[in-house]
Amino acid sequence: MSYWRGARVKTDVTPKKRGPCRVLNTKDEFILVLLKIRLALTLTFLGGLFNVSAGTASRIFNTWIKFLAKELGNLIFWPDKQSVMSTIPKSLKYKYRNLRCTLDCTEVFIERPRNLLNQAATWSDYKKHNTVKFLVAIATNGMISFLSKAWGGRTSDVHITRESGFLNLVDPGDVILADRGFTIKEDLLLRYASLEIPPPSKGKEQHTPAEVAKTKKNC
Q1: Residues 6+ apart with CB under 8 A from 109
Q2: Helices (H), 73-197
């Protein structure tokens, strides 16, 4: 791997020249990256934990993230309808025989950008923090079948769904499970697909028996 040295610094690709000596072995570097991803630890903390500088921890993390994205990116793909139907669990097969995926957005906390426009674009009222947001589709066998590009946390789930290219993958007859924030029923109807969402609860003290039954059905 060629170590990341910043966006403005070009990586030396001359085969006769070696990069800087690695302070940590491959296993420790990988553990550092996993700790950063899973626990959102600061680079300063990780540097102290592995006895390296925060700058070195940053270079390791940025290098590995690009490497992992390249190597693991092919694991996220949109399966054909026959494959989905063959792996759908029995508990869902009888309820939603044409279920294609479950749709949701996930947000990742980021540091507050210095640029005021970027601050506004990434501010999430829901999380009360600056975030980036991704649209994620989960297939019936539990695999991630679609992952959008990153959007600012201010962006609505509906806008990301419409602009990410997800709707172009939907086939006629597909059933999509989603949360109440995904008001995309009409978008799916144009593709002869349908949307299943939990019944609304805003302004209600208690669900009706029919709504309770539907909520249990969606679980």
Answers
A1: 40, 127, 129, 130, 131
A2: 81-87, 90-93, 116-122, 157-163, 185-189
Q: Which helix (H) or strand (E) holds 180?
A: none
Helices (H) and strands (E) in the chain, counts: 9, 7
42 secondary structure, DSSP code:
-
- The pTM (predicted TM-score) of the whole model is 0.76
Tens digits of residue pLDDT in 41-74: 999 999 999 999 999 999 999 999 999 999 999 9
Q: Closest by alpha carbon to 188, among 158, 169, 165, 167?
A: 167
**Domain extent listing, the chain:** 1-74, 76-218
User: According to the model, what pLDDT value does residue 72 have?
Assistant: 92
Token reading at 98: 């044409």
Q: Are strands 194-196 and 175-178 parallel, antiparallel or unpaired?
A: parallel
